[in-house]
Amino acid sequence: MKRLLSAALMLPLFAAVGCGAYGSSVQPSGPGPRAGAAAASAGALPTAPGSVTIGSADFPESELLAHLYADAMKARGVRTKIHADIGERAVSMAALKEGSIGAIPEYTGDLLAYLSPASTARSPQDIYARLRQAAGAQGLTVTAYAPAQDTDTVTVTKATADTYHLTSIGDLKSVAHRLTFGAPAPTRTLPYGLPGLKSVYGVTFRQFVPLAPTGTITQNALRGGTVDAADIFSTDPSVSRYGFVPLKDPKHIFAAQNVAPLFRRDVLTQPMADACDAVSAKLTTTALAKLDSQVADGASPDAVATRWLTATGLVH
Length: 316
Hints:
316 residues, alpha/beta, five-stranded mixed β-sheet, 13 helices, globular
């Protein structure tokens, strides 16, 4: 659904996957430290609401997140604009640095890998701590991260889960020799792909089926029985739409991808931080997946964001 990770970029990040890496979105961690507290060591944030242009990457979830955070900030007096569909991370980072945008919703694991490829942080909390350091060195800062994650999962149909009594990846160990696994071709060699499944969980599938990296192709392959398990993002609308079962990842071979707003440090104000922290505190993986599903069904990201913020009491 969203970003396709560069194997070359991510390899250093996952080099020690066998030791237990990031948290999985199917077991979301709590939100990160409040931005106000995090910023205290670097000096108090301005109390005036201020103004900010919020960017989004070139996929629907990013635009939805931009509206969620923008509307919450607007309710606290912040003047906001949205610059949607900027493009890939390199483009958005350039836009932040030159000032055409002041903030963008991000994913902690991927962002840390971009800013600090050699980082060996494991847990969501450690990723966030390293991310604050890496971002700060470039004049950037992150507000609190949400429990919501959009990360890879090993997913099966409900029928497969029921047949083999599957709830976590480890449950596959005794039955994987009967099953096929579908994912983009690089998964064959990436540390958090087939090698990680084998070394961390002892899971070896009967067959690996390389699939083109689009959601529809993978969903159809899983639904139609071309594959028995597939790599699907945790907030993909197909999970709820088709009753798919993402398997828990207690040993954390997949990267934690907690949602967190990234700001230029000279743009962030206390009302912006408070608004973003309030959204992040309520935004779970399940909630984000439901919102994504509404957008996939044709609703505008702006309208979906407004309804959720109103329903949660964040905007009156």
